[in-house]
Input
Amino acid sequence: MTATLIDGKAIAAQLRVRVAEAASALKTPLARAPGLAVILVGEDPASQVYVRNKAKQTREAGMESFEFKLPAESAQEAVERLIQDLNADDRVDGILLQLPLPSHLNSDAAIALIDPEKDVDGLTEVNAGRVLLGRKGLVACTPQGSVILAKSHLGDLSGKHAVVIGRSILVGKPLSMLLQAENCTVTMAHSRTKDLPDICRQADILCAAVGRPEMIHGDWIKPGATVIDVGINRVDGEGGKSRLVGDVAFDEAVEVAGAITPVPGGVGPMTIACLLRNTVLAAARRHGLDDPSV
Ligand code: NDP
Output
């Protein structure tokens, strides 16, 4: 069997088109474009690339991008003051604090200050709690994108057995909740799980969010299963160049799975597209408008 590739790049591009239409439609009731503020503390090269991409795609979707770059040695109070200013700024509909912060800063305390209605990363306790309770909120972008990709291939997920490997606050936990909300039967696996390969072989939908390069082998996958590979790992490639791989051994998995997301080009592009989606949702909700159909 050769698995169908779930093209995250193309699906993210379609989502960005819908976001751009929604952003354009919001300009009249808001009397301005929806706005996303991104805070970067320090000079971490990967974070700088992410922030640049987010700002570019925000502008391309017809939204206002506000970028704030603070020096690596910034005090906690400076970060918190900026978040509070952005909470109060009516032009800003979404606030994203680029993680990780430099080690002397307390990211939990900073995230806790973000107005939940502007929390487009879905990381505040309020939005995490809404996901748990099945209430409307702003859903963390990577899990949201992962579910959109699974549905793009399978349609209705009801009754499917989903195995999620990884239980982080950022990915594994919310992804498990979202799949349960789609009426999947969900097994959450983690580093203490026994017989992980056997558990994975039971999955109709196998989601890997571990951060270990190519850990999941082809013989861990049920023939025909849908594989969502969230992992992004940089490994040594040919000629001393590094390359990105997922948590799933792609060349093996593609022979067994029914469908699989590639790395790169799978879940990654969906994360930014869902961030833009959350920004137009936040803009509409903050102004008492119906959710745009994005
Ligand atoms: P974390 O390190 O926070 O969590 C990793 C999880 O994997 C933990 O729950 C851990 O279990 C579990 N784990 C570790 N080793 C094993 C093992 N041997 N067997 C089973 N489970 C294991 O990572 P994140 O959730 O933040 O990220 C996961 C991956 O997703 C990374 O590769 C990251 O780069 C990628 N990512 C991709 C994004 C995208 O846009 N595509 C966005 C965010 C992340 P335990 O809890 O027991 O320690």
